[in-house]
């Protein structure tokens, strides 16, 4: 199964990501052990230069990871032709127990690498690099996620057996079945719509003041509400948003909207959701670093920017998901 | 303001690349070649896959063959009764067809009877198809007409297994656009075909089973196997899946064989990026002395990588596109098409999607960028005074 062009591309692409992050972590150990900002020694100068290499490595790793995540979904989608009973990525990912964990690891890596880069940017704006140790600590959190993602991905592709019958999205996300997917689909639509609206309101209520003042309770609230919104939005996509895109009251698949038949609308939709929730969570996550004197001016400025980005991106997500609800004749009144 | 800074750095990078035209065009040339080869393999595979799906769209949902000693054998027509009893089956039709080796032209012809599916493509036919019980007439494919110099109303002579010569009057010739399907085709009536191949009565080549609901086809196939254990039901989906797996596997194999060339290119890129000329070192030294930061130099190197890989990527993929769809994949077709290279000419339908682009990026641009990160950093942390002093 491994001799599929997409799989070869993934194995090479994410293999290189792993390699970059491992070398970054190797440098991270050196830096963590000997870092002393007050020293003027040649060693410290060398380490400061190496921090550039580490940040470059992680930035490229994130770039590659974005391509790999896209390729992973697309390869899974492409492989449904090979599997009996699979009609889209859901069926392919469900073909063995490694599929969905591999996808989750990919998404986790995406978020962690982006968080690292944001921290790095803040850190570089301060004279004394106060976050160096925290940054390199985070690097060691990214590493297991990437390694797990790589191993799961390899296991997933190598154990795909084109002969077995997998469940297509019609089975996994159909109402009344067992499993998480089915429970999400059979959530009462009216209440789910209300919860979705409420969560969005919460994001707005915390995001707009946070974007204006960057003051403390709002940033923390935005962090919590965008984290909630992320899971709420995924549940809503499965529960009712996808129905409007497909204009079918029974089709709950979150992957089909990535296909050409639906104008690839899934890509801007998920890009807006992921980036919005990421910036929202980051706004509150950097709150503890405000106490550091050299970051006192940097962080609030960044928080205001991120809060604005989060609010705009999440609003974009909401607008995109509202378009078919408002403009197509399809309704779910009867449900 | 900060956007202006990035634009300025990009502008500087492009000018500096242009100053070293010769050196950089070497890399671009080799890189485009690598991308062209890899891209050709991918484009060709996907074009074949689509072609297979389009062509196989006309294949019956379910075909039943009889097996004997592990080989395909003629199937008794009486089996149709057993199959027709299975719920969900709408029709069972015996099919008669065979291959005829023509020793004059040293080619294999496919001989079939006129059926429903053939007459669907009637507009591709010059003349007409034989009627179901018409004797001594044939419609032939364009390939046969050309190699045997036949026109309408000419005679096509074929030998039956006992050595007797049989003549068929040509009443129809298939037109060029359908060549992939009809190039080597001879259509004669059922009785003529049975006589030509001396088929015993009561048997057919295989049975075509119509299923009312296509999603039920696998269940029907299973039931057929239970009732007639020596039968081999073949689903259309199975054929499509097999082709899909086969083409993926073949292109994967070629890509793997090609990995050596890719590795060689990555080493070349690494080497070029590491071996900074004295000139370049001085340039970076001067830039830093002028106040450029290490991160600015890294950004310049990033733009350099982007400019080189994007230029090569577009050149490569355009070349691959031309190679596959304008020149009919002259380099790879024999390996990917398989043994059936008897169909000399057919144009593939151009098809390209974001998936192929992403795969190609993963296979070529990512290794290139990865190979240049450390050399770029080494260049970026150069000490200005060390360099300028020499």
Report on this model:
With about 325 residues, chain A is mostly helical. Chain A folds into 2 domains: about 1-165; about 175-335, no CATH class. Chain A has helices at about 5-35, 40-80, 90-95, 100-125, 130-160, 170, 180-185, 190-215, 215-245, 265-285, 300-325. In chain A, helix 9 (about 215-245) packs antiparallel against helix 10 (about 265-285). Helix content of chain B is about 55%, strand content about 20%. Chain B is built from 14 helices and 14 strands. Chain B has helices at about 1-20, 20-55, 80-85, 115-120, 140-145, 180, 190-195, 215-225, 235-275, 280-290, 295-325, 335, 355-380, 385-390; strands at about 60-70, 70-75, 75, 90-95, 95-100, 105-110, 125, 135-140, 155-160, 165-175, 185, 205, 205-210, 230-235. In chain B, strands 5, 6, 7, 8, 9, 10 and 11 form a 7-stranded mixed β-sheet that branches. In chain B, strands 1, 2, 4, 13 and 14 form a 5-stranded antiparallel β-sheet that branches. A two-stranded antiparallel ribbon of chain B has the order 3-12. In chain B, helix 2 (about 20-55) packs antiparallel against helix 9 and helix 11 (about 295-325) runs antiparallel to helix 13. At the A-B interface, helix 1 and helix 2 of A face helix 2, helix 9, helix 11 and helix 13 of B.
